[in-house]
Amino acid sequence: MSRTIIQNGTVVSLDPEIGTLEDADVLIEEGEIVDIGHGLSASNADVIDATDRIVIPGFVDSHIHLWQTQVRGIAGDWSLMGDYFDDMLGNIAGLYQPEDMYLGNLFGALEKLHTGTTTALDWSHAINTPEHAERAVDGLKDAGLRTLYAYGPPGNDAATWWFDSTEGHPDEAVRKLRDEKIVDDDLLSLGLALRGPDFTTEEVARSDLELARELGVVATIHMGAACWPSSIYGEDYQGFGAISDMLGPDVNIAHANHFSQEDIDHAVEQGVSFSATPEVEMQMAHGIPVTGKVLEAGGQPTWGVDVCSDISGDMGAQMRVGLQVQRMLDNQKILESDEEVTSVRLTCRDTLEMATIEGAKALGMEDEIGTLTPGKRADIVTIRTDDFTTAPSHSPIQTVVFQSDPSHIDTVLVDGEPVKRDGELRNPLVHEEFDRFVESGRRLIDEAGLDL
């Protein structure tokens, strides 16, 4: 039996029954957490010394486009309408070949692991052929990231797929990928990345959601970002109302910046999860992140990176940015009423939970991951507190949220397997495929003719 024991760490379980334990151990057998406590031991176990380490559940990124990894650093000055739709969805996406999908997903997933994310929802929408999806999944497999692979539309014909589209989701290709690539893989699950009524006719939006229900998978939908649908479709635009009677806990909505409070209330009541990607949304003029409205409705949003051609894959940044933006908005509301701000509504624990257990719930994985709980899979991160930029750690959760960065992530386990140890990724593909990865990015930018 494969055994690993993490010893002498500050265990931030995020499980309310277990809490936070000082100088504690986590025992893992066959990839499962079997015990958390003090003075644990196991024969023939791989010992991970967590002295001066905070031990937390791995981060869960609920919305990212991993295929864009090798064109990172091009979208830092882009807006959604002025650049992203034209240059990314209308140009670069169509140039991707299957090997580009493999390399983008491989290195995007490796970045996730390096920065402490053990699970991601990969919203994959450059599926120009079925082979593109197959190679994208190969990249995820080779990296070792737990992933909900959300199969999206092709990226080589934006006019057909993204503007009042009458084309339904690629049904046969999705089923083939599920049966041949995903169904027997413990780290991979299938989802559908749907365009929704912002980008398709109401009939297509509903039939795509029905397909997800038939397959029994999570449907993740881009909705309510920016204001462009009303400018294109005018008063006939249905938006959220087109599918509001079809919602449920198997639906994840990305962005939703312009949903009304009434719409959010209804969606939360139906069990819908919301992915906020605050850093990209603020830059690209999506609007104010949905965080406050979801909280007002009694729900909890999740965090995502979104466009990794723009920002880094570090989920810690989204925890901080998302938390502080909402605090600013809450504070400003009080200040404008000529009152003093005497407390904050959102806490550091709240934002850490949004990056872990709430993300797991959005992906339908809360019984497997998201907290350190016996019976769950061992997706675990240890963070150094013996560095001069993190010591002394008076509050481990605050240290994780505000003082740590990827340089402090010491060890990462996925399903009990160490994928990063002593600060270094263990996957040899980081070096073996690096030159091909860089060349792929250079070729794509060159073929796109972008003047950077």
From TrEMBL:
Coiled-coil boundaries: none
Protein name: Amidohydrolase-related domain-containing protein
Gene Ontology molecular function: hydrolase activity, acting on carbon-nitrogen (but not peptide) bonds
Source superkingdom: Archaea
InterPro entries xref list: Amidohydro-rel, Metal-dep_hydrolase_composite, Metal_Hydrolase, MTA/SAH_deaminase
Record-annotated Amidohydrolase-related domain positions: 54-419
